[in-house]
Design goal:
Length: 238
């Protein structure tokens, strides 16, 4: 995949420079005016984007914004031109690669490795226990402290990769039958039950979208928390 824009993977979620995106999309208006206009489409500072002030060599200052890939994807859709379509597809591919079971597993193992090194340094007697840990155990422990939430479909892929014969649709059905998700038809269908939310197994991401005709719609996405990933992985593996 050709790199249209540099992606920063050092944060909890991948981000890109809004200024670089502005240049890549070949926007004619000034960056400050453009970003101010884009940020009114239901985006939240410190959640969808961060504002950073940088010093210039000539003594001046410049304002930079680092936005999530999800925000960048939606901004590209708003542009409604070929450049916007091209960059949106690029971000879709980045997002898809970031959320593959392999990448989630790799991030969890990396976090586990960091924890292992801390344990080795603080208490040499724990080395034997560390060596005993298998990848499935490491993964389950790592995601419990992770801030990365994933879709239920991605959880199904992780379970499948670890020997559980289940797919996305069957996992949804299982969660409804076991009262983790609401089974009654209506606006709350497939939303987490009250007990699931109180247990910290899921979170609901809401986004307000301004339609071109001036109307507003709210979308809800159910995500499995790190604690929820550990809970379901352990439950199925046992």
């Amino acid at each position: 995949m050709n790199e249209l824009l540099k992606i920063n993977y050092e944060t909890e979620q991948p981000t890109v420079s809004a200024r670089d995106l502005h240049a890549g999309l070949e926007i004619k208006s000034k960056y400050a005016d453009w970003f101010k206009n884009m940020s009114t489409y239901g985006f939240t500072e410190n959640e969808d984007y961060m504002t950073v002030s940088k010093n210039l060599e000539n003594g001046g200052r410049i304002i930079e914004h680092f936005i999530s890939v999800d925000m960048a994807k939606q901004i590209c859709m708003i542009q409604r031109n070929e450049k916007g379509r091209q960059y949106r597809q690029y971000f879709l591919d980045i997002e898809k690669a970031w959320n593959t079971p392999e990448q989630i597993f790799a991030r969890a193992l990396k976090m586990a490795d960091q924890q292992i090194e801390k344990l080795k340094a603080s208490n040499a007697s724990l080395v034997e226990d560390v060596q005993r840990m298998r990848p499935k155990e490491v993964f389950a422990d790592a995601v419990s402290v992770s801030n990365t939430c994933i879709l239920i479909g991605e959880l199904a892929k992780i379970l499948k990769q670890n020997g559980v014969d289940i797919g996305q649709n069957r996992l949804f059905t299982w969660m409804r039958e076991n009262r983790f998700l609401i089974s009654r038809k209506g606006t709350d269908y497939n939303m987490p039950t009250q007990r699931s939310m109180e247990a910290g197994l899921f979170e609901i991401k809401e986004r307000t979208i301004n339609n071109p005709d001036g109307s507003v719609r709210i979308t809800k996405t159910v995500l499995v928390t790190g604690k929820g990933q550990q809970y379901f992985v352990n439950k199925f593996l046992k």
